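ping. complex inputs:
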Amino acid sequence: MKMHRQFINRKEHLICDALDGFLRSSGGANLARLDGYPSIKVILRTDQDPALVAIVAGGGSGHEPAHAGLVGAGILTAAVCGELFASPSVDAVLAAIMAVTGNAGCLLIFKNYMGDRLNFGLAAERARALGVKIEIVIVKDDISLPAISQARGIAGVLFVEKIAGHFAAEGASLRTVAKMAQKAADELVSIGVALSSCTLPGIGREDRIPVGKIELGLGIHGEPGVEQIDYSGARQTVDLMAKRLFGAVRPARAYALLINNLGSTTPLEMNLLTHDVLTGKHGAKIKLVLGPAALVTSLDMHGFSLSLLPLTGQFENALRSPSAVTAWPLVRTHLKPNLIRLPVALKSKALPASKNQALADIVLRACKILLEAEARLNALDAKVGDGDTGSTLALLARHLKAVLPTLPLAREAHFFAAVSSVISRTMGGSSGVLLGILFAAAGHAAAAGATWQKALLAGLEMMMTYGGAAPGDRTLIDALAPALLILSKKGDLPSAACAARAGADATAKMTRAKVGRASYLSAANLQGIADPGAEAVALLLEGLIR
Amino acid sequence: MKMHRQFINRKEHLICDALDGFLRSSGGANLARLDGYPSIKVILRTDQDPALVAIVAGGGSGHEPAHAGLVGAGILTAAVCGELFASPSVDAVLAAIMAVTGNAGCLLIFKNYMGDRLNFGLAAERARALGVKIEIVIVKDDISLPAISQARGIAGVLFVEKIAGHFAAEGASLRTVAKMAQKAADELVSIGVALSSCTLPGIGREDRIPVGKIELGLGIHGEPGVEQIDYSGARQTVDLMAKRLFGAVRPARAYALLINNLGSTTPLEMNLLTHDVLTGKHGAKIKLVLGPAALVTSLDMHGFSLSLLPLTGQFENALRSPSAVTAWPLVRTHLKPNLIRLPVALKSKALPASKNQALADIVLRACKILLEAEARLNALDAKVGDGDTGSTLALLARHLKAVLPTLPLAREAHFFAAVSSVISRTMGGSSGVLLGILFAAAGHAAAAGATWQKALLAGLEMMMTYGGAAPGDRTLIDALAPALLILSKKGDLPSAACAARAGADATAKMTRAKVGRASYLSAANLQGIADPGAEAVALLLEGLIR
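pong. complex structure:
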């Protein structure tokens, strides 16, 4: 046992406060509770048509959203909530029945546990003595204990509640509602597994499941499973459960499957388990899928249960019929994932090569400058980063030289877009994406009519937006921004190169980097060392005017 | 770090298989995916009106149901999913944009993380270069790092997605959709806490939070919180979070509150936290409540976040507008729990006393017999139970004698009902409820016209139904059933007493008890000892004919 902290206050008020939290956040759902705290905890509809059969269910708390979360048009008329994992009292059940039942009578649904049988049972008999028409359905869907005559009730109870709620809403007689609910209860099978038990408030979690094992056939109150079996992954577990379920259920053409999260299983795991059961041996027989969702939980148990109901037209209709209940999952049809072809635009719609000797000359010179600066930039980066700025830019330069004859040089917009592609294919890490953004945005601006100088400035602005760095943050922006600003104001290249140099040199005096690896270094480590990216920009421009 | 088992197969396929499980269980929701696994993981609507603005969102996986679970009419047009906690690639984002965007353009929504900014950013620029009209909203709602200029995006992104989805569905222009989404992103504030970090598949869970502490201001990828503070319960935690949120948010007349489960917080805790925030100092200002629900999770993190949005008429309308998305919670109004008075029928509607000297004599004799048998029955029970059968029945007998003058003796139906009440008020445990059921059901049968003999037999049957025991299970039924059977067939009391004696004696030969404490005992312990309940029935009937 390990003490576990939880988001609670005093244990004594937990259930009442939680129910009030549920009600407080339910405005518009037409819910109320009976004024009987703390002993009588009954959540009920305020919009029940008194001419219809009332559906009352309940049991111990700790299984939320069941059953209070299922009160509403189309499912339950009232839910009777006990303390944690404890049956509600006879008086509480009787209060629920008397509060919601009209001349059409009441169907009482509960799970097959001794405490519930006794308290709901006596309440039902008392209600009968008071003249209430009442029928009972006891849910015993757990197939994990085949030898026992008194199977437990687990998550399959939801099928029974929805089917009963549907027929009641349709105006069926108590006899019909009870008959349909009993048929569902009779035919339904469930089984659960867990990798951990649940954490009891103020007590903790029992660490009883050894590594490499999984509990099969556990109850929903932290009670041990029927057997501990070897655990070798989701797929094998689901296959075993499906084998047992389909071995026990009545043969039918199609089934509804409820995939219930017992507590802390992640949505990723639940979706994966859904995949594994629906693509497994019996998957094709599953027509309707409820969930995956946390519906009948066991606090924070890391486990799940599967419940299977043979479908009839009436059951399918009942399960699919709309309800006003938030916790009820939309009932979906099992289908093969629908695949849509990738958009054509993605498939390397490379623009055709075009000639522009002046531009080609500039690109070749730029590549030469970057190749020559490789060692120097690496050395600089080794002092404030991981020593690869020079190599990364040299790699880009080599690649750019190689593909130059295939690039669309005739139009600046096309050229910038092509450079963006080359950069993001060649350079890794965030710097590759950031330069890719700069050239893509420049291409877009050029296409919209901007001069190449203004287009590059627009690209820089986009790079700053996405990258989150600005001048003064000790990045290549400190050299690039002043240079592009001068160029976009029709300044000449020598002035731009001069501004880049001043900017690069200024980074050596910046004692705090805001982004990148240099941001992990102290002022003492940075002092006197220029940012390698800014230095690269300065070297490039200085080289181009030489 | 502790290795933790999970419901997965191979880690490499986890996200793709989980997404396919999601799609397989979504029939009827008009969803599909782009055919680009494993690198391109895009879930999209198949029923998008191409004349409307497309809403594309996404980010790393591990936050389910966000964002794939929010694709559908009224919210997202497509979701781009990365690997676990890793941004999707530029190509994946671009594929999503190109697949769903028509002439009306596309709004791209993502959270403020470097990886997302870069990949979504470059994809957006590429899409622009391909002629797509595109706008961007970056969500930075986390207020836990006040000093940082780049606040993280957490669960508040859902407000932005719903508001954008609403205006897009209404046919608004890209400019309007982006403006409303940006306004929501600008005004929204969020903060999160956790009692544990999340379990990384194949790695485990970092146990970094000491007992008695809680992490405030954590991220959604398992990254540590901004501060570890003393933990002294749900209420104090919620008060602190509310104080920070309301201190940071724009003053407004009313707010919408999103209560987001980060993973493994139980529904009970979530409802309690909802109660505490809505009844706290600022609770009255909260008008709309979204959740509590698991919406933007961090795998199985035991924590939650609160997000606050100042409401305008447009925002309220957008949040309340219906959507076809299962994961989207119904937006509810905050209201005080609605209390309904307890049904009058419960309030001790005691039937008036009435006389029947013959019956009173029998009751007094029965009480005398049970009082005299106390020690003997206790001794018998001490061998196979907890030694209190005699005392329990003597307690009942004493109470029955005392209240006899107040009971309605003139009609059997009323008398049986009254005895049922006396029994369940006096006797504890299951035996009290079971005998209460017997007499309640007998009263009901008598009221319907049955003779007292047949009424008692009907009561016995009900007791067997609820109690789950039958003849042969070594209970009082083994004496009671044969006796009541004879009586109901118009046999005389001596024959019934004789049958009860035979039945009680037979229990001494039964080597297995199916219910009650005796069921824990071995055959050797039971051999030769009669069941105390059956013995009590035999003694009672033998006494009555003496």
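The first helix of chain A runs from residue 14 to 24.
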